[in-house]
């Protein structure tokens, strides 16, 4: 992402600070609370809004990238990036452990949560980067493992006039103690094109 600037961990603000937060060199290491999650209503009927997210401003025309590593072991262990307007309007995207394998996917929520997943077994125990790019009336989510190619994860509406924040998130809906090492948190220019290819997307 061209012209990116690192967002210091202590400049962003926590939504539901995890029970354990440590700085190791330039990395942020967090451990999740018991049965932490983000979800609204669909299929399950409940509202959970106690997952952990470290958020900074995502103005129109910008993108935020997060890189992290985690050992996903328990059902629904998850980490990645969250884009949040309020408790009824948000997107989370990254890797989630479901059906016995890591899955690459996203939950887009506008009062009701809308979930999509695709198996990604080769993404386990690899550095994962997720980018949220805001342009016009859309939010575009892309991700890659290691130094691999970007994959399009989701394109979803986001009104150009709303105030949104974004940053790393994690939660563990069936246990406590998912440990996630976040190694990168940067802001840069929004993607030049929805269908552009390569690292300069």
Automatic annotation (TrEMBL):
Superkingdom: Bacteria
PANTHER family membership: REGULATION OF ENOLASE PROTEIN 1
Family matches, as InterPro entries: ConA-like_dom_sf (IPR013320), DUF1349 (IPR009784)
Taxonomy of the source species: Bacteria, Pseudomonadati, Myxococcota, Myxococcia, Myxococcales
Name by which UniProt lists this protein: DUF1349 domain-containing protein
